[in-house]
Amino acid sequence: MLTAARKCRLALALNQAQKLPLFSSAASADASQQPSPPRAGPPPIQVSLTESAGRGVFATRRIGAGELIHTAKPFITHPSSSALDRVCYLCLRKMAIRANSAAGGSFCSEACTLQARAFYEIDRKANWEEFDEYCRINGLKYPYLAKRLACMVIAGVTSADSLNILQPENLSTNMISEMGKECSLLRNAFMSTDVKHEHLAFLNDEWYINVLARIRINAFRIELACGSYEDFLASAAASVEAGAAVGNAVYILPSFYNHDCGQSVLTFLY
Q1: What's the pLDDT at 244?
Q2: Which SUPFAM superfamilies does the annotation name (predicted)?
């Protein structure tokens, strides 16, 4: 969720950008029902091209301090390995009761269980021992998002090119070489499952490198999942100071938000 920071606003000139199709929609009023309550319109933002920084999100009108700008669900999530026993394996909310980390992940609700059912069946059948060990030794977190995406693709939940809309990072030769090892471990994890070979055809070095190049510069670090905005304000500073993170997530539209050192919006998950 994004709200305008106090005493700050998004004030970007749309006439300096080439407009792209809106990433939002609004329901039209039903003329047969009179009178009708006001309907919420689309978010006051749109994706456009900047003059020098690629695509970004621009305000379509004046935005006041504290006004809700946009809400979005993450496209991919994965908990940190240290948080597997205390957060939901899908939404990353804190679990009421600590789970058994050896089980590979638990869910906070029936809704999350049902939403994750297809790809979780793939996930839990794979052997992640070598993959997890390699990520732990090398302090890697983003391969877990690639792992989640791979399980979603195999399960038919999404397509292999679903992140292509996002801007990729320019990778060094050394980084690309290391990613080849990660991809090999990821693919090998599925060898002990009953996943058909043709369902793994997409999972090659090219796919993995393209996915990681997008995840690395578009992923959000999820430090806590709050029950309210007040909870967020009360604990955010302490979480950041302690370096606490419950996982990472990739969003689609929020990845286009312009950002710099002079932050004009606040983001939080609850």
Answers
A1: 66
A2: SET domain
Q: Which candidate, 52, 88, 67, 54, places its Cα nearest to that of 9?
A: 67
Mean pLDDT score across all residues of the chain: 79
Contact, 10 vs 59, CB < 8 A?
yes
Q: Whole-angstrom Cα distance, residue 90 to residue 131?
A: 20
Q: Domain ranges for the chain, please list them.
A: 1-24+40-71+252-270, 110-218
Provide the pLDDT for residue 226.
55
Report residue 256 as tokens. Answer: 């286009």
- Token pair of 133 as six digits: 């060990």
Q: Which comes out higher in pLDDT, residue 147 or 59?
A: 147
> How far does the chain reach from its first CA to its final CA, in angstroms?
8
Q: Does pTM surpass 0.70?
A: yes
Residue 205: pLDDT over 80: yes
| Whether 239 contacts 223, CB under 8 Å | yes
Q: Rounded to an integer, what distance in angstroms lies between the CA atom of residue 190 and that of residue 121?
A: 12
Six-digit token string for 194: 């009953």
- SS3 for the chain is CEEECCCCCCCCCHHHCEECCCCCCCCCCCCCCCCCCCCCCCCCEEEEECCCCCEEEEECCCCCCCCEEECCCCCEEEECHHHCCCECCCCCCECCCCCCHHHCCCCCCHHHHHHHHHHHHHHHHCCCHHHHHHHHHHCCCHHHHHHHHHHHHHCCCCCCCCCCCCCCCCCCHHHHHHHHHHHHHHHHHCCCCCCCHHHHCCCCHHHHHHHHHHHHHHEEEECCCCCCHHHHHHHHHHHHHHCCCCEEEECCHHHHCCCCCCCCEEECCC
